[in-house]
Amino acid sequence: SKGRVVFSGIQPTGVPHLGNYLGALRQWRKLQDEAAPEDTLLYSIVDLHAITIRQDPAQLKRWKKEMLATMLAIGLDPHRSIIFYQSSVPAHSELMWILSCSASMGYLSRMTQWKSKMSLPDDASPLDTSSKAALKLGLFSYPVLQGADILVHSATHVPVGHDQSQHLEFARELSNGFNHIYGPILSQPTTILSPAKRIMSLKEPTLKMSKSHADPKSRILLTDSRDEISKKIKTALTDSITGVSYDPETRPGVSNLVEIVYHLNDGAAPSCEAIAKDCQDLSIKAFKEMVADCIDAKLSGIRERYYEILNEEGGSGLRRVADMGGMNAAASAEATMEKVRDAVGL
Ligand code: ADP
Ligand code: NA
């Protein structure tokens, strides 16, 4: 019998932060470690998604390489997981077009990320980037590409952050719509939700940690030095209440730090409440030092491997990994595409 097919992707838009790691990347590694021999794992650096926002070409190339190095540094094994650049497998774009021909505009326009853009003024010129007129087709249709990414590999399981479940629902809708017309060809992927729901911004702990926030001190990057981690945690927004306790409602800043420690300990730790109780008599300063130590202890190995990988042989090792992943991913996609083309009459 066939095993499960796991697919997930991440955009090459800079070094991942602690939220990306705890909410996504670490889960990928865990799934790889727990996979049965007959399972297939595909992890894609989704460069075609990255260009829905205008990118500097040289920087995008650099970011792709850095994301690949990060994925290896967190322990993804290219002999166990298929690690590849999305654009190296044209079948992703091909299936996207085919799915576009049956995707519902109405459904797409109800997606929250698009809807949030609908409040922009619509009377300005296309050169005014803050107007509706400047919105791009690719941004509207990228959930179709996301669906194609998953379905082209006949994925059965998709590990995603909680913010992505709506897009998974849409992928299932695309699959249903296609299968309704052409027969049972595309898979019905199920979601694997990450245990780390939302790591919050260090500066605005009611918002999620994100690369799109202006203040770089609001997030810890996987490549941050011991010193940078300490500085960022030291300046993290907390409150004026004495001691440590866990209450995300009234103490979001302190509670976020507790949750970071909890999730870094990978379920081996006691609950957030127990961690807070252990630290209840510490000053916030001492608690923050403890949090910084904990983050550094978990990230230092990743950071060292990252720089080793990136500096090795002028990147030829990374090229080999990308080539091998691209070939294996193309073979996986082709198995689905032969059936799809035949069914559609292409
Ligand atoms: P960002 O919000 O920084 O742009 P992405 O949207 O590129 O991050 O997310 C990449 C992955 O990381 C997704 O699976 C997403 O669910 C997860 N993720 C992003 N931010 C967080 C966070 N603050 N906490 C937990 N998971 C997150
Ligand atoms: Na995002």
UniProtKB/TrEMBL annotation:
The keyword Calcium does not apply. CDD domains: TrpRS_core. It is an enzyme of class 6 (ligase). Its main location: mitochondrion. Its EC number is 6.1.1.2. GO terms for molecular function: ATP binding; tryptophan-tRNA ligase activity. GO terms for cellular component: mitochondrial matrix. InterPro entries: aa-tRNA-synth_I_CS, aa-tRNA-synth_Ic, Rossmann-like_a/b/a_fold, Trp-tRNA-ligase, Trp-tRNA_synthetase. It is found in: Mitochondrion matrix. Keywords: Aminoacyl-tRNA synthetase, ATP-binding, Ligase, Nucleotide-binding, Protein biosynthesis. It comes from the Eukaryota. One of its GO terms (biological process) is mitochondrial tryptophanyl-tRNA aminoacylation. Belongs to the class-I aminoacyl-tRNA synthetase family. PANTHER family: TRYPTOPHAN--TRNA LIGASE, MITOCHONDRIAL (PTHR43766:SF1). This is Tryptophan--tRNA ligase, mitochondrial. It comes from Aulographum hederae CBS 113979. The lineage of its organism: Eukaryota, Fungi, Dikarya, Ascomycota, Pezizomycotina.
